Fold each of these.
Amino acid sequence: MKLDINSTVLKKRRIAVVGFLGAIAGLLFGLDTGVISGALQFIAEEFALSDTMQEHIMGALMLGAAVGAIFAGWLSYYIGRKYSLLVGAVLFIIGSFLCAFTPNVEILIAARILLGIAVGIASYATPLYLSEIAPEKIRGSMISLYQLLITFGLLTAFISDTVLSYYEAWRWMLGIVVIPAVFLFIGVATLPRSPRWLISKGREQEAEKVLEEIRLTRKEVVTELQEIEKSLQIKQSGWTLFRDNKNFRRSVGLGVLLQIMQQCTGINIVLYYAPRIMGMAGFLTTAEQMWGSVLVGSVNVLATFIAIGVVDRWGRRPTLLLGFSVMAFSMDLLGLMLYLDLDATWAHYFSVIMLLVFIAGFAMSAGPLIWVLCSEIQPLKGRDFGITISTATNWLANMILAATFLSLLNVLGAANTFWLYAALNSLFSVVTWWFVPETKEISLEKIEANLMQGRRLRDIGQLL
Ligand code: BGC
């Protein structure tokens, strides 16, 4: 008996470690997307860059990430999730070195595209891997751990940029990312392979061994093996399934919609332009603005803990509904403050508080939950294809929104731009209500069975 309890504790620990190591890729995602914002002004000075060139440096990572996500679908189908992440880690290492030692801006752009490819692979393979190894009861929290590490990476990047900015050490800002990249490589090398991927390649015995390692009882192992085998009976994959199967087209469509919704909340506008928004709210010095970014990053991390705590208890739908409402509300008030343009201290602080409420609303809901849902709703045979499309959508939408924000500001004005995002967030509450399924505590195989029976998208997470 004592032995049993001990082995249960050991296994739980092992599951936690596997989840954590798998999620480290999120840290690199956050670091690499965040680090450029502080480095850019110094790079621009050193190489005397035009605005367009600066936009190219910003956009290079997102473009690379969209390409990386598409490439990762193919890669992870052939070599598996674990080895894809290893490829990602190697690219992170090479890309960071290249950035730190770049002799000119062309090589810097190429290095940022390379890092983008790594981020694309990471943002594709991590939630997929975590969803496939996580026990049902904690699947939501485990995938949210990935988002927690993204936010932690962003915050670390903001802090390190702020500190290094006093020395104008932009090469260090970009180069320091090598350290976590090496950790990622070592960590991922010790991970087990995804049991679902192994079975899809006819390697049942290996899959069984992995499940023995990360499930608590023999019964769980057997049931899961049977369920996976059953869901693999449809002998089609990816594109063919998409072409021939209406139900699969519905889940792919839902994945695309969810990622567009996540980006159209306006989160990255707020993150990338946080210093500028702080400026619009009356905080004018560079130091004030950079520390403002650190504050934004901290709230982003802290509120993600809320999601981890509630996602498997409240469920996906209520958490998302609450999050979109909070975001709509805070963007509305932020728009109002910009419209009134009051020059009073309370008004400045109130605007910053609304900015932080917005970040908290995102971090406790759409931040993690969209990744959770996208990795849960695709049927096993088409999972690589479906998640490829939704992840690439995330990056393309991110790129388009970042590239159009400044023009939107010019055309609509600050208040209207923020009101536009407020309206979108209200719309997303309605969309969530109509289309988004509740997937807590239900097996991926049951979700798949419901989808393939043609049940309404909103109902594919139902047990009966
Ligand atoms: C989004 C990113 C965003 C980050 C912020 C992620 O879930 O996909 O675009 O920058 O959250 O925390």
Amino acid sequence: MEAADNNSHVFADYAALLRAFLPQVRGFYCYGKGGASLWSEVSNPTMPLTPAYEAALAALLNEPSANAARVELAGAVAYLVALRNEKDEAIAALAILMPADALPMTADGCAQLILPASRTLQRELSLRVRLLEGYRKLNVQATEERLLHDVERAVQGPPDSEAMLVRILALCSHYLQVRSAAVLIPDKSIALVHGAALTEPELTLLRKDRGESPAGESGDLYTVRIRGADRARIGLLVLAGWNGADFSAKRRSRVGRYIASHIESVLERCYDSLTGLMAWPVFEKLMATAVAASAGPAPALIYFDIDRLHVANDTLGREVGDQVLASFAAILGEEIARHATTRIASDRFAALLVDTDLKTAREVAERIAARFSRLEFGEGDRRYRASVSAGIGSAAPDHLLSADDDAPVDGGALATAQIACGAAKDRGRGRVEVYQPADLSIVQRFDDIQLVGAIRNAIDNGRLALVGQPIVRIKTGADGHDHSYCEVLVRMLGEDDQQISPSEFLSAAERYQMMEDLDRWVVANTLELLSGSLARLAPAKARFAINLSGQSLGSEAFLGFVQQQLERSRVPPEMLCFEITETVAVANLQRAQTFMHTLRKTGCRFSLDDFGTGLSSFAYLKLFPVDTLKIDGSFIRDLTTNVVSQSVVAAVSEVARVMQLETVAEFVQDEATLTLLGKLGVTWAQGYLFGEPTLLAERIASVTEMPGVAGLHRSADARGA
Ligand code: C2E
Ligand code: CA
Ligand code: CA
């Protein structure tokens, strides 16, 4: 037992008073709650204590009925007297040490003897205890407030994930004086410890901690569960070696919960809730750091864009769409460390590879794309086949940026990866492209911004032209007539009136939401051209196909616009066929369906363009009331040599026959293909074999009563294959 002489001056007077009652006394000890020494005045402080002494002391402090005890020690006798407050609670115990040969007394006799002195001491102590308790409470309160305030400040500013969590843990260590403060989130591979490492027994306990109560305690191991966005437990805040005696259980759990909730909000801000990958702002910061620190090869950035996710969303529901994203994130997290991956937004992801050359990065991206493409969602004809396009950029600033004040902190990695991904999409999706500054289609994307101005100008000032490409009948229609049929295509006029093809400006127009304006221009101008020649066109049963973009089909006002144009031009609706792509159509399923149903009732026809390239193409036939399937050119170009293409065309043709739809084959460039198409039962053919697109006005002017199919394609365009 230690002498607590820091209180001596306070107790000196009481000691003198006690001595007046007990002249032979060898010493006094005063114990507070829990047996802690409050004060002692003793000639021989190293007095050995016996278990009986300890037991008697404990009884006096804890048992309301115990008042005094007498304990024999080696060469001494100890009289123990309880000191109580006004509420009769034991707040301290006084031990009086007498020589063994002193006049023997009973315990109660001793207590009685010193009563006047012990009463005063009692009052003094009770006051002091209250004072101390008040002081301690204030102190704890202040500690709690400072801790909470500092934690609050620590989580402000842009989230930087682990650094933020470490700051919170450091504050816990500092204010709560814990040996170790830790955050463990297994799913996010987070295991952060501030202070000493957790001991093996502690870790064993933690593994067993099921966190069923909001806060669990095991010895001095204090845990609070960390919850995810769905309130399910995802991990633990651990405070080890916390002598939380000053903190009431209530306060302790309040503080623990408060810190845990801040950790939760940091996690929420730092990680994407759906996929668990790094949130974009955190990733961006990491990327900037990595680029600034890289000494070896410039970090490579892979940009992923899930292909046609809206197909999954629209046909299978958002939940399945979320599943698709989560599945992709899981693959990404497995192939590349989780902390190096992010979901940028909706269906776009990125991964940073440090010390990796572009070739390796490409292999990684290809492996991910391949794994993902093996997944399938939904069933039957409502199915989404997973596919992702990826682009790889490098943070080498010389790629595209000169010494520029606006140079991005990532050295242009994101921009270049994004561009490469755009190229991957353009080239058929489900593939990986590495950014190459010399790549033409990529350079073209850089000019997007300038293009946008040109497109705007073209639409506003009529710097556009309409061309038409003939579509010819392969077999005679059921009604025995051949129609004049042609697809209207748009061209932009360059500075010296040269025609600029849609492939050069449509993607920019799409990205900058200009497609509806463009389509309106095409519809209005086509109808105007037609309205001037109705007398000649009607008997020829001429049919004109107009392409519509998804942006128009998804626009509320577009249907009204078309109806109004039809009325004004007096062009019979039967003369028009709208070509839509299935991707476009499903992007806004309901509106597309309304558009189609309404116009079909008036007599307009619809074709499903690029048929066969989309996912589960046949499934959409049930959703869209179309009259014609335009088999994508990629199946026609190699039809004579590729058996896969042949079976696709045969299947499409068969389905069309059963559903009483017509089929058009695009990109027919030679006779052999045409012959084969005839055998496969395809209805119409379009392609350079019959003619390239030429000015629509001239084409309309040349329409007369249609000649028989045999002679048509040669005579119309006089173009050898
Ligand atoms: P699409 O609807 O699939 O049109 C067919 C494209 O293939 C046209 O290119 C046509 O010129 C080309 N083509 C036709 N036969 C052959 C052939 O035998 N060989 C080759 N190599 N090409 C052939 P174009 O005119 O450049 O149009 C490209 C795409 O731009 C169109 O694909 C269509 O999606 C879009 N587009 C064109 N005009 C318009 C328009 O007025 N409005 C909208 N919304 N989109 C349009
Ligand atoms: Ca088309
Ligand atoms: Ca097409």
